[in-house]
Amino acid sequence: MENNGVRIERSKRLDGIGEYYFSRRLREIAEIEAATGRRIIKLAMGSPDLPPAPCVVETLCETAHRPDVHRYMSYRGEPILRRAFADWYRRWYRVELDPETEVLPLLGSKEGIMHVCMAFLDPGDRVLVPDPGYPTYSAAVRLAGGEIVPYPLDEENDFLPDFCALEQAAAGVKLMFVNYPNMPTGRTPTPELFSRLVDFGRRHNILIVHDNPYSFVRNDSRPLSILEVEGAREVALELNSLSKGHSMAGWRVGVAVGRREWLDAILTFKSNMDTGMFYPVQAAAAEALSLGEAWFDELNAIYREREKAGSKLLDTLGCTYRPHQAGLFIWARLPDAFIGDCYDFSDMVLDRCDVFLTPGGIFGSQGLRYIRITLCYPAEVLEEAAQRIRERLHR
């Protein structure tokens, strides 16, 4: 039967924006499993499998019984959460924030990336984006009409920005995304790195947006914020999140911190897109932000055991990797003898071993000789994946 419906073309702003890689690829893998009965171990996304602290869940449940918490909440976030974020920054990052003007809770920091781009970019504005880097940076820039200017993070430079190259690329740049501890490489920051970024942004009139969700996960150094640097508030915003270090990914709690007028600009866009988050979630998030070192020690002890299992898996594959990576993943280089790129390698391991590894190329061209594995599975699952590889790949 002929379809006589109207023809509506999708917006041109979606040109060049594909479906998020994991959304598409994991659906394809689910179809393979359904058609063949194979059970594929998916060492892909950084979705924490560990629960939040019990006191956080208890606070959520107790608060949800209150009759006064089910209305719309403030677009700026409730005072309980803004104060908790300010206290958290003072305690862990040594940064003083005014909870009334310098803290803006978000529905996850991924939302913040899009909001920043929509609040500050006009069509054609140039944005420095790390390669490899979180794909959402590039997608958000494109959706806002900006122009991506990739800056490489390569192993020879220890996955740090090449500031000589940045000087050459700075002309006409309005905004720069930075992410340390870095995803996907696991590289941790230093105070010197943040100082150089602040100086670079100030000299070139570039807004530095630091995305900081991994500073409490497998980080051998103390947590750092770019806002610790003198003068950083005049040039930098920071995004943070409870998704990783507090095992609250599905709760969607993030924050933007920094200069009042910049947060007001983000709020102008945000307030036209959503409303404030459910009050019990905010109260529970405030409880999570009050947790002490014991919480992080317990969490990281589990991730360190998984790291050992994941390292053995990568050894079995013949991959090489840097020690002391932070975050929920291990970033590893393909064996030199392998002919092909990361997609070929990932497909080969999937087809022969029923193990899915993330190809590093999804994070940018600098990742084509790398893969990434997640530590968001028990060590036993990682060990099972390694066993499959030993039995099927090397027989």
Provide an overview of this structure.
The chain is built from 12 helices and 12 strands. It is α/β, with parallel strands linked by helices and 395 residues long. Strand 3 (126-131), helix 5 (135-143) and strand 4 form a beta-alpha-beta unit.
Outline the fold blueprint:
Elements: H1 21-36, E1 41-43, H2 54-64, H3 79-93, E2 103-106, H4 109-120, E3 126-131, H5 135-143, E4 147-152, H6 163-169, E5 173-178, H7 191-204, E6 207-211, E7 236-241, E8 254-257, H8 260-270, H9 279-289, H10 293-317, E9 320-321, E10 329-333, H11 342-353, E11 355-359, E12 370-374, H12 379-393
Helix pairs in contact: 2-9, 3-9, 4-5, 4-8, 10-12
Key phrases:
about 40% helix; about 400 residues; alpha/beta; 12 strands; seven-stranded mixed β-sheet; five-stranded mixed β-sheet
Work out the helicity level.
40-55%
Q: Which outline best applies? A: globular
Rounded mean pLDDT is 93
Question: What is the overall number of helices?
Answer: 12
Binned strand content: 5-15%
Q: What is the subunit arrangement here?
A: single chain
Cα-atom radius of gyration: 22 Å
| Count of beta strands | 12
Distance linking N and C termini: 54 Å
Order of helices and strands: HEHHEHEHEHEHEEEHHHEEHEEH
What strand order characterises the main sheet? 2-8-7-6-5-3-4
Low-confidence stretches: none
- Supply the helix-strand structural class: alpha/beta
Largest β sheet strand count, sense and barrel closure: 7 strands, mixed
